[in-house]
C-alpha cells in the first residue's frame, strides 16, 4: 500500500465539517490501496504562531522525498513559507474547504494578509482539491487556474427518515459551531419576531470556539425573551447527533457562507425540509424543492421564510417531499473517496 499523509491544524478529531471530511476520506482511501495517517499540527491557526510553523516544518521534514501529502487549507494557507520549502521534494495536495480570506468578521488588513498567504501557498502545491464547483470559481477569483483544481464532494451516511417531534408545534434543529459566520443571531432575531407561533429550537454545535461570540448569542436569547424555546446542546456525534435530527421537523441555518455544507446533506438524508441562506455553495447543495433559501444576513427575509413554513403545513410537506426525493441521489463516502483517489492517482502518475 502506498503511504498518504494528511496534515491538519490542531486536533484531528475536531467536530466540524472540514475535519470530519478529512477523517472520512482518509479512512475510506484504505480501500483504494492507500495507507493513510492524519497528523495534527501544534500551535495556533489560522494566524500561525512559531509553534505552528515549527510543527509543520518538523512534520514535512520527516517525510521521504516523493511522499504524497494532503494538507488541509487552514494549515496550508497559514504557512506558505513552510509549504514552499518542501514543495519541490514532496507531492503536496492542498485541500481547501474555505478560503481563509472569506471568513466572516475579518478586518480589511487581516483579510488582505490571508489572501496574500493563501495565493502564495496555492501557487506552490502540485494539485488542489475542493469540495464544490463553487470553490473552483472562488479560487479562480483568487487567480488559481481551474485546470489545477479538482472537486471531491463530501459523502453522506445513509440515515432513516426523521420521525419528527410529533407536534403540535414545530421543532427546529440547527447544527453549526457557534461562530460569527454561522449567524445564529440572524436566526434568533427572525424567530424572536415569530413568538406567536408554536416552535422550539435546538442548536447543536461547539460553543467554545469563539466564547465571546457565544456569550453574545446567549445574551441575545435572553433579550428576545425566547429562552424557554431555545436550547444549546453542545457538540454531538454518532447516535446523539442522529437523535437530534430524528426529533426535528425542520432544519434551519442562517449561515453567511458555506463552501458545501455537509449538515445540509445530513438533513436531506433524513428527509428534513430546510430553511437556510443562499450563501456560497448552498444553492448547489440543496435542491430547490427541498429548501427555502434567503439572502445571508437578512433577518426580515429569514423571518418571512420561517413564517411561511410555520403558517402553511402544505409548504412544509412540499419541502419534505423534495428532501425525501433528494436523499436517494446523495453520494456515500466510498464514492467520494473513489473520486479523491482518482485525483491522487492523476497526480502521482504524472
Describe the structure.
By secondary structure, the chain is of the alpha/beta class. 43% of the residues lie in helices and 18% in strands. The protein has 14 helices and 12 strands. Strands 2-1-3-4-5-6 form a 6-stranded parallel beta sheet. Strand 10 (250-252), helix 10 and strand 11 (274-277) form a beta-alpha-beta unit. Helix 7 (184-192) runs parallel beside helix 8 (211-224). The longest helix is centred in the N-terminal third of the chain and has 17 residues, at 108-124. The radius of gyration is 21 Å and the shape is globular. It starts with a strand and ends with a helix.
How confident overall, as mean pLDDT?
96
Let me know the largest β-sheet: 6 strands, parallel
Rg over CA atoms: 21 Å
Oligomer: single chain
Strand content: 15-25%
* Structural classification: alpha/beta
What share of residues is helical?
A: 40-55%
Number of helices: 14
The CATH homologous superfamily of the largest domain: Glycogen Phosphorylase B
* Known CATH architecture of the largest domain: 3-Layer(aba) Sandwich
- Please report the first level of CATH classification, the CATH class of the largest domain: Alpha Beta
Total number of distinct structural domains: 2
**N- and C-termini, Cα separation:** 19 Å
Strand order of the largest sheet: 2-1-3-4-5-6
Question: Segments where pLDDT lies below 50 for 5+ residues?
Answer: none
Amino acid at each position: 500500500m502506498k503511504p498518504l499523509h494528511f496534515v491538519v491544524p490542531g486536533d484531528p478529531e475536531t467536530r466540524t465539517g472540514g475535519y470530519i471530511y478529512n477523517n472520512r476520506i482518509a479512512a475510506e482511501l484504505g480501500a483504494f490501496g492507500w495507507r493513510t495517517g492524519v497528523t495534527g499540527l501544534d500551535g495556533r491557526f489560522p494566524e500561525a504562531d512559531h509553534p505552528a510553523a515549527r510543527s509543520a516544518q518538523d512534520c514535512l521534514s520527516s517525510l521521504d522525498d516523493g511522499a504524497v501529502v494532503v494538507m488541509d487549507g487552514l494549515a496550508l494557507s497559514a504557512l506558505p513559507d513552510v509549504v514552499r520549502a518542501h514543495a519541490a521534494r514532496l507531492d503536496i495536495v492542498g485541500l481547501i474547504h474555505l478560503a481563509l480570506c472569506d471568513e466572516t468578521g475579518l478586518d480589511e488588513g487581516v483579510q488582505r494578509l490571508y489572501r496574500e498567504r493563501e495565493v502564495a501557498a496555492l501557487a506552490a502545491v502540485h494539485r488542489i482539491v475542493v469540495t464544490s464547483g463553487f470553490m473552483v470559481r472562488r479560487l479562480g477569483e483568487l487567480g488559481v487556474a481551474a485546470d489545477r483544481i479538482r472537486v471531491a464532494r463530501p459523502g453522506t451516511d445513509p440515515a432513516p427518515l426523521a420521525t419528527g417531534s410529533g407536534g403540535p408545534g414545530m421543532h427546529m434543529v440547527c447544527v453549526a459551531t457557534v461562530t460569527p459566520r454561522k449567524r445564529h443571531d440572524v436566526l434568533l432575531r427572525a424567530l424572536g419576531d415569530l413568538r406567536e407561533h408554536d416552535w422550539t429550537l435546538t442548536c447543536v454545535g461547539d460553543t467554545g470556539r469563539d466564547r465571546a461570540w457565544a456569550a453574545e448569542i446567549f445574551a441575545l436569547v435572553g433579550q428576545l425573551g425566547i429562552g424557554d424555546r431555545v436550547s444549546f446542546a453542545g457538540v454531538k456525534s454518532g447516535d446523539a447527533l442522529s437523535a437530534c435530527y430524528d426529533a426535528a421537523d425542520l432544519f434551519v441555518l442562517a449561515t453567511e457562507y458555506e463552501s458545501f455544507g455537509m449538515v445540509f446533506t445530513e438533513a436531506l438524508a433524513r428527509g428534513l425540509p430546510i430553511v437556510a441562506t443562499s450563501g456560497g455553495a448552498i444553492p448547489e447543495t440543496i435542491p430547490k424543492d427541498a429548501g427555502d433559501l434567503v439572502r445571508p444576513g437578512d433577518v426580515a427575509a429569514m423571518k418571512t421564510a420561517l413564517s411561511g413554513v410555520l403558517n402553511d403545513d402544505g409548504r412544509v410537506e412540499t419541502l419534505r417531499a423534495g428532501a425525501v426525493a433528494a436523499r436517494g441521489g446523495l453520494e456515500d463516502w466510498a464514492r467520494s473517496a473513489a473520486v479523491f483517489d482518482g485525483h491522487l492517482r492523476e497526480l502521482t502518475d504524472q
